[in-house]
Amino acid sequence: MKKNDYHNYVIKDGKLIGEFEKMYQDCPNPWPETEKDLENNPVSKRTIELIKKYKFKKLFSVGSGKGLHANWLMKNVNGLKVEGCEISRTAIDYSKKHYPKTKVVHLDIKDFSRYDFKFDVLLLRECLWYMLEYWTDFIKTLKKKYKGKYIIIELTFYDYQKYGREYFDGPNDLVKKFPFSIIEVLRHHVTREQKEGMILIFGKII
Asked: Do residues 39 and 32 touch, judged by C-beta distance below 8 A?
């Protein structure tokens, strides 16, 4: 397996590999993203605006990775507290060292129901593709334990994507199948030629 190419550890040839711990060990920077990238991303910026508009004080990030995004959120929203969960211990160790203000627990998403987290808004940023097998159970947990809380999903759909199409056949299908009350939807295309692109769905768990 070729190192430094995160595709070899995540999704490849239309199949989920899911070796996130090994990915973080072998790839120094699997998601090459900077704070400047976040600031220039309309979807990421809208998440900040929604947090401020609804005066959320505590956000829980599913799949918080190495902590850059969580720290960026706190830097841009005064008084916001961000906690999260992550499956990779290597990523958690990095987050604790470089972004100690973010509390992150080690958690496989299939065990999410065993915990009682406290938050105003739940964020699933670019991780839904990795939890499709447990999506139905995850929804049940949210409806049972977190009714009345808010949820933000940020997700990228790729042109000619193979993996996950049986669950969500494009952004419009995700909106159609969204299991909670939808407040807002934002679509973003990087180029005019891009058919799929990024989507943000903001809703309330009911």
From this structure: no
- As given in the structure block, the two tokens for residue 93 are 């160790």
Residue 3 has what pLDDT? Answer: 58
Task: Report in angstroms the alpha-carbon separations of 97 from 36, 171, 199.
Answer: 21, 36, 31
Helix (H, G, I), strand (E, B) or coil at 33: coil
Range of the domain at 150: 33-204
β-pairing verdict for 15-16 and 11-12 = antiparallel
| The overall pTM is greater than 0.90 | yes
As a whole number of angstroms, the distance between CA 202 and CA 206 comes to: 13
Reported confidence tier of residue 193, pLDDT bands at 50, 70, 90: low
Is residue 103 in some structural domain?
yes
pLDDT band of residue 81 (cuts 50, 70, 90) is very high
Total tally of structural domains belonging to the chain: 1
